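Internal QA ticket QA-208
Title: Verify multi-chain structure generation after dependency bump
Assignee: T.L.

Test input:
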Amino acid sequence: MSGASPTDGFAEADPRRDRIAGAYGLRYEEVPAPRTEHHRTEPLLVHQVTPHALPIALENDQPDPSRSAASAAMPSKLGASRLEGQLTPGYHVVADNGALDIGALIGTSDILGGVASGLAVMPAWVVTTNLVVRIDRTSIAGPLHATATVLHTAERTAVARVQFTAGDEATRATSVAEALVTSAVRRAEGLDLGFGRPLRHDLWAPPPVEPVPDWFALSQIGPTTTRLDLLPHLRNPWGILHGGAMSVLVDRAARHAATSGRPHRTVGGAPGLPSSRSVMVQFLAPVGVGPVEARCQVLGAGATGTVIRIEVHDIGADDLVVALATVVVAPS
Amino acid sequence: MPQADPSGPPAGSSAPPANPLARALSITTEVHDATAAGFMPGPQSHTGATVGTPLALGALTALADAAGRSLAQAVAPSRSVATSDLTVRQWSALTAHVRLDMRTVRHGRSVLVLEGTVRTSPSADLGAGAPVAWVSVTLALADPAGTGQPAGTGPAGVSAPPVPSRQSADRVEHPTAPASVDDRQNWSPGQFGLAQDLEGWRLDADGPVRTGHGTASAGALAALAELATQLPPPPPWGAGGTDTSASPQPATELHLALLQPARTGPVRPVVLRAPADTGRAGASVALTGPEPASPLHAWVLIVRQAGPS
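Actual output:
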């Protein structure tokens, strides 16, 4: 879940948000933007550069046609907002084989897509409803180039495309992942969001020192069930489980289920779990109580991987189903 | 039991969806409360000819879209429904008839989330075999535009599809494909309204692939995207059918995000390929109109098995 919207005056940064951002090696700052008639935005984000940062900058609403074949083909159709920058993974989101943890990458997709969409629909805000990520390359250590482009906004929905590429600045030739983030557009009237708008984050919090499973409070209940304790730092400013953390849970649970908990030898040679290759999460309800359990079912297996269906339940909320997901895990 | 919208199949009944593409593919759906069963003949085709190539993922998408919208119209009869996101994951090649059993997993004020399992099935009214694919459909629910306009009908100037007649729940009808459609295969590009010209594949969205809203159906858009990502490029599809000797590696995953409706054609694909990695080849397809200022209609993520290097 992500969002951005200006009202009058600044508000103090919410430290919880800082912590969840740090979990992904992400830093960002939101500053006021002039409102325009068509929800378009001017350059308005300047991001800190720290060793663990994802310094992303919002470009003007006219994309650079030279960036990609897609933008060259339809330069007039990408009119909302665009985030672009380098992703340098912190050590806390590095997997056993030295590569960027795919779950963290999926979570970052949610953040970037949500921020881009939120900026495009100001003064409204957004909640992610559907996240789809196709992983094209695993065993990538970074740094990565990240781009989030809003494809479409409407009265009630926004759709953003998030790309991660590797390679030098000139080429950025290797696609690492691509995501589509569909969000519901919400109006803030009558809602207590817990903080004022616009936000201004004065970010500097040390990144967490725990590895991914510890930071995200993950525990394995059985071969097909993974639990996440809803610790305070995993909640977003609305007080509910962050969509990125949900993505990490789903990713981890599916990878365990695909191997029935058996260790798997990764490309790098170290024992671990096979990588997720494709993730789709439908966010059905906010998670406010916890703990949260991802219960997996193996649907089938083919040449490109094992298809896992996951139901995510909020145990403390009468076992409510809060998300559905499917994950394709690389063949063992 | 709510009364179904006249543009969709009545709840508890079996009828061909009011969808020309579904009719062309001989898709039928049977709706019961919050579940639906869709059936589509396999590559053996209407006339029994064996073709030998697997069912395209675009055809499965069309099945999911048709069954999903039929179910949505039954469970939300007073609302206008439109597909917004659609995901299909397939792990076994399909060379037989298929049955999709779909259920409602969330029915909110403005959204309906459905999911279902695709199995092989000898016929629409017999049992189903092993699961071969999984689908998820998200539909947006809205109040019908205008005054007194029922859900599923198009705006002024767009004709509503024919109203299916009420039938008994235990009877499934296989409508005859239109005469203009090559009936030797139930997934030929022509049946999706797709055609090839010097610029590549196109979808004539004002052709016979519209939904009840008068817009190109998700199934047709998915078929266009899938066709555009085939390597090697398929040979021209003529009256003689297709040359199956150069069949592309099958698509196994497809996700379609509908952005803006396509009411007129042609819709063209812009393909972005991701390099193949460990047996998979990814591609993204932007579906857009012919002019620089044309809207972006949909974005599609596709995964295929990687071909021999």
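Spot checks passed. Chain B is about 10% helix and 30% strand.
Status: verified.
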